[in-house]
Write a structure and sequence with these properties.
By secondary structure, this protein is of the alpha+beta class. The protein is built from seven helices and 18 strands. It has two domains: about 220 residues, 2-Layer Sandwich (HIT family, subunit A), CATH 3.30.428.10; about 160 residues, 2-Layer Sandwich (HIT family, subunit A), CATH 3.30.428.10.
């Protein structure tokens, strides 16, 4: 095991990072903001004694990335994920601290603050190699990496209840992983995200997120990159994302909240029943380019917005959502000037979901069940009740 320390003098938010290896060779990192670890009074042992064999790449037939010859979109094949963990009972929580449940945890320590480790059932892993390179059929190994981020040792709760200190530590974890994963050979984009709620398709109730390091540009990012390049060469403007932000600020009607460094708004062509974006005023391309002040500001704003999500519908205590951190690509998206957060929910009213049926699923021709202006007005109406600063431990 090795350890390193991240310091944030401007915010007095130091985080100690301890790095270790799980029984099957996967990497695990502990991000500690608790004083015993910061002072060196306690150290991480990280001894995983589970009888796990060395991890091997799945066979070619079970894992690959193929390119759709009609659209050019990359599609990951991950047949080895069919038997992955699915909604285990509370006493079999794989993200609980070691010794808490009835089965060995993925996290071999009796306590922790925030943990990141390689996914046991990844859709992307290993080096990138060409398997097939024909005019219509192109295929590679599933190069890349998938990681799990456990926000808290508590099985109950959510990111909105972490409190400022722990949420700020998660942002430091995202920053650390963005820096390291972006430096890996063949990585095109690093994508932290969170799925919350069974309606979304989560397989673990424990508050957690994931990070995908893609060896290709995902279709959405590729489309934004193409649009940004066209905008920059059209003569209408030179920074698509910055110009969109300026236009939203000028229009004003879809703005949810402004802070010194960030703007939260409902996008002009919102697709989902509940949806918002958060964009930095300054052109910071990813978490590694944010200042301490911007991270602090983002932490407060993000917790505020997540609180509003949970009050969007009067009869819904915990809104199911996807929270997606779109960072600028490592390569191939030079005209994407800045990162942004996109949060959305498929719940259109209490007990009713927006299903992506024929038009949306088959043709990607979206039909919205509301208007962006109504969504923004509702967000502005429901500023959340202040939460205790301490939050979940």
């Amino acid at each position: 095991m090795s350890a390193e320390t991240i310091e944030s003098p401007a915010t007095a938010h130091p985080v100690k990072v301890s790095r270790g290896t799980l029984a099957d060779g996967r990497e695990i990192l502990f991000f500690d903001d608790s004083q015993p670890y910061l002072s060196g009074e306690k150290t991480r042992e990280i001894k995983d004694e589970r009888p796990l064999g060395p991890r091997e790449l799945p066979p070619y037939e079970a894992a690959a990335v193929r390119v759709d010859p009609l659209t050019g979109d990359s599609v990951a094949l991950a047949a080895h994920r069919m038997n992955r963990t699915f909604l285990p009972p509370a006493d079999e929580d794989p993200l609980a601290p070691a010794g808490v449940g009835t089965v060995p945890s993925e996290i071999p320590e009796a306590d922790y603050d925030v943990v990141v480790f390689e996914n046991r059932f990844p859709s992307l892993q290993g080096p990138l190699e060409i398997l097939r390179d024909e005019p219509l059929f192109k295929e590679t190994t599933p190069g890349g990496r998938c990681e799990v981020v456990s926000f808290t040792p508590n099985r109950q709760g959510s990111f909105a209840e972490l409190g400022f200190k722990r949420a700020r530590t998660v942002i430091e974890a995202w920053t650390h992983r963005t820096r390291e994963l972006s430096a890996r050979e063949g990585i095109r984009q690093v994508f932290p995200f969170e799925n919350r709620g069974e309606e979304i398709g989560v397989t673990l109730h424990h508050p957690h997120g994931q990070i995908y390091a893609y060896p290709y540009l995902p279709p959405y990012t590729a489309a934004v990159a193409t649009r940004a390049k066209e905008w920059a060469t059209s003569g209408a403007g030179d920074d698509l994302l910055g110009d969109v932000l300026a236009a939203e600020l000028e229009a004003g009607e879809r703005i949810v909240r402004e802070t010194e460094h960030w703007v939260a708004y409902v996008p002009f062509a919102a697709k989902w029943p509940v949806e918002l974006m958060v964009m930095p005023r300054r052109a910071a391309r990813d978490f590694t380019e944010l200042t301490d002040a911007e991270k602090d500001d983002l932490t407060h704003l993000y917790l505020d917005l997540l609180g509003r999500l949970d009050r969007f519908f009067d009869e819904v205590d915990r809104l199911p959502y996807i929270s997606a951190w779109h960072q600028a690509p490592v390569s191939g998206g030079e005209n994407i000037s800045r990162m942004y957060l996109h949060v959305f929910s498929l719940l259109r009213s209490p007990g009713k979901l927006k299903y992506l049926a024929g038009s949306e699923s088959a043709m990607a021709a979206w039909v919205s069940d509301t208007t962006p202006e109504r969504i923004a007005a509702r967000f502005r109406q429901i500023a959340p009740t202040p939460r205790p600063e301490g939050g979940l431990s």
